[in-house]
Amino acid sequence: MVASKAQEVDPSLPPVRALIEAYQEDASALRRYYPWRMSMARHQRMGTLIEQFAHRLNDIGFAPLSQEERIDYLLFQNQLKFDERRLTQERQRYAEIQPWIRFGDGILALAEARQRVEPIDPESAAVVLHALAGEIRSTLDELEQEASSKPTAILAVRIADWTEVYRRALEDWFAFYEGYHPAFSWWTQAPQEQVIQELKTFASEVRKQFAGYQEGEDPPVIGDPIGRQALMEALEYEMVAYTPEALLEIARMEFDWCRKERLRASRELGFGEDWRAAYDHVKSKYVPPGEQPQLIKTLAQEAIDFLEDRSLLTIPPLAKEVWRMQMMSAERQKVNPYFTGGEVISVSYPTEEMAHEDKLMSMRGNNVHFARATVHHELIPGHHLQLFMADRYRTHRQLFRTPFLVEGWALYWEMLLWELDFQRSEEDRLGMLFWRSHRCARILFSLSFHLGEMSAEEAIAFLVEEVGHEPRNATAEVRRSVHGGYIPLYQAAYMLGGLQLRALREELVETGHMSDRAFHDAILKENAIPIDLIRASLMSTDLQPDYKPRWRFYRALKEQEEPGKSGDPQAQVPHATPQDRDGLRLSDRFRGKVIDNAVDPHWFDDGNQFWYRKKMGDGRVSFQKVHAIEGIQAPAMDHALLAACFTAFSGVSVDPYRLPVEALEGMDDEDGVLRLIGPDRDWLWVPLQGRLTACASASVTEKPAPDAA
Q: Which residues contact 570 (CB under 8 A, 6 or more apart)?
């Protein structure tokens, strides 16, 4: 049995990280033990686990935590709230179809009894199975005969999908006992086969009669919209401080920009206002079948060379060495008509079993110029590089992985490379614009669909008419968006995440506070967490346990223009709140380097670095170290560990940001020994040994760091 209390955590880890890692393992163990999402036992047990970890997190004091630990705290707090809310949503959505699949309760009872290893009575099980077969038949008869009970197409698909879940659960139940219990097969094989057949028939008939499925044809594109309230809750979880309606307006403005650029490129190519003809011209430039892998390899290296020549970010040599390629099957291309990537890039291109028309659409949709705008999205600097780094830095944060960073990072590079003139020709420009307008369209059709304002068929037509998709590819795109296993905000996250990162670069790189390399490397090492908290990390924003995102990253939206007057120096940092600006400004003398507000810099390392006291309000101070050349800012010491040592000395609790220290000496010391200048006495701090030494005129007393626990 699963323990009733939360499991112990690793005492060698920082307390919040220890909780995060324990929760990941405990939640995964429970999901394996209770694999059926419709199970009330699963919901109750997961709810208890979430409550236990929420209490344990609340017991951790927020004030003594470092900035990184505070971010982990907020991430975990946000995750627990979201997981609890998701349990409720799952129960509500299942309750909407439960009257049509009451027979599932009997199947679930068998499966859960087997999981608990309760004794099996084959004869009684056969009776249950026989009754189940009749119940399934009678439910289908009721559906066919009673007009008032007929489900909508959306609910019909959900009913059929859940019926398949029950069928697999029953097959697993039967396979567990078959051949092991001597009397089991004799009693249950025939009635079990009958139930399986009834479940298949039920799912098939529901899809045909109520959702429009036809034998031998691709299924219709039918999604399951979640509604505005669920969208708002999802945006809260993603730490995006906009309503769905505001995001739609952002998408429209970005789409307008794409339209203007598209027409300009069309004119340059000699097609005038006929941008569709210009796209037909670009789509005709595809490589022959069999040559697509070599094209991908060439484009991948071209992007790497472009990045390294401009020192835009650090690319580990192993990341350049280990990426691989595979060809996508014809079946998979029905929902993925273009490349997908990571360490393995899956290449979408015609296979021999495709119909002739589908082959042509696949080649046209994956032409040279479209591919040039997507290979770097999938490999380097896109998904492959970011996942490579995520597996190596702050790995405990993978629990919080969000498409706003995963997809937003890759889309951000499409926008930045455009600004850096990565495109070599007007054909390349159209290729890049195709994808950029496609990302705008994803926001428009996916949010509109979930708000109930656009049907799946309307979304397909929109992609064909306004973006320039091939019909087959547009259908696949909408299918994967509305019924492809993606979270509702996934498709909107590409462009919105890219816009967040673009705004953050404006705040930090274009104002001269970080170099491109330092900025991009820092983001990759934060792992794929909400961008609002990456921003808080890079800006050293003062965080509290009740922190709520308020960042308006899209200043073109009229009702959310940047604050400040033209004469206010703080207004020169776009989008930033006063707290954010504390980590952004130094006098013009230090422009081009990492800065902070009201800085009194104390230089060392031949003038390449400095430390300063950062005022955090309420008399609290942190000591920060800045590498002015690399554009990197970090704490000058572990404030929490040092506070614990001071506490051990005095016997009185010392706040990490109210240390009895006024200045630092010895920042150049190769052994890392710091002299801490205090109001009454000085101290020596040896961080590698965790040793604090009180310096007096005639005596020296040493105190090691406390145990990590």
A: 564, 576, 578, 581, 585
pLDDT attached to residue 631: 64
Ranges of the chain whose pLDDT falls below 50: 1-4, 559-597, 697-709
Give the pLDDT confidence score for residue 336 in this predicted structure. Answer: 67
How high is the pLDDT of residue 694? 80
Distance of CA 333 to the CA centre of its chain: 24
pLDDT at 129: 97
Beta strand pairing call for 632-635 and 663-665: unpaired
CA-to-CA distance for 147 and 672, rounded, in angstroms? 79
Alpha-carbon distance 364 to 349, whole Å?
A: 9
| Antiparallel, parallel or unpaired: β 344-347 and 324-327 | parallel
Q: How many Cβ atoms sit within 10 Å of the Cβ of residue 190? A: 12
Question: 521 CB contacts (<8 Å, ≥6 apart)?
Answer: 313, 314
- DSSP secondary structure string for all residues of 642-702: HHHHHHHHHSS---TTS-S--EEE-TT-TT--EEEE-SS-EEEEETTTTEEEEE-SS-EEE
Compute the distance between CA of residue 241 and CA of residue 530 in angstroms, rounded to an integer. 12
Residues 13, 708: Cα–Cα separation, whole Å:
8
The strand order across the sheet containing 632-635 reads 602-604, 609-617, 620-627, 632-635
Cα 661–Cα 667–Cα 668 angle in degrees, nearest 5: 160
Distance in angstroms (rounded) separating the CA atoms of residues 359 and 263? 28
Query: Do 543 and 532 contact (CB within 8 A), yes or no?
Result: no
DSSP string over 219-276: PP-------HHHHHHHHHHTT--S-HHHHHHHHHHHHHHHHHHHHHHHHHTT-TT-HH
**Phi, psi (rounded to 5 degrees) for 693:** -120, 125
Are residues 483 and 221 in contact, defined by beta-carbon separation less than 8 angstroms? yes
Residues 6+ apart with CB under 8 A from 222: 153, 154, 157, 211, 212, 456, 482, 483
Cα angle 298, 304, 309; round to 5 = 125
Q: Kindly state the tokens that stand for 489.
A: 């905000």
3-state DSSP assignment of residue 441: helix
Convert the pLDDT of each residue in 377-425 to its tens digit. 999 999 999 999 999 999 999 999 999 999 999 999 999 999 999 999 9
Taking the whole predicted model, whether its pTM rises above 0.85 is answered as no
Coil, helix or strand at residue 324: strand
Task: Concatenate the DSSP letters of all residues of 169-180 into one string.
Answer: HHHHHHHHHTTT
Q: What is the pLDDT of residue 147?
A: 64
Q: Coil, strand, or helix at residue 620? A: strand
Residue 545: is the preceding peptide bond cis (ω within 30°)?
no
pLDDT of residue 595: 44
In contact, 337 and 472? CB cutoff 8 Å: yes
pLDDT in tens, 496-532: 999 999 999 999 999 999 999 999 999 999 999 999 9
Residue 448: strand, helix, or coil: helix
Please tell me the predicted confidence (pLDDT) of residue 477. Answer: 83
SS3 call for 616:
strand
User: For position 652, what pLDDT does the model report?
Assistant: 81
Can you name the residues that pair with 604 across neighbouring β-strands?
Answer: 609
User: Residue holding tokens 């780094």?
Assistant: 389
Q: What is the pLDDT of residue 629?
A: 66
Chain centroid, CA 497 distance in Å? 10
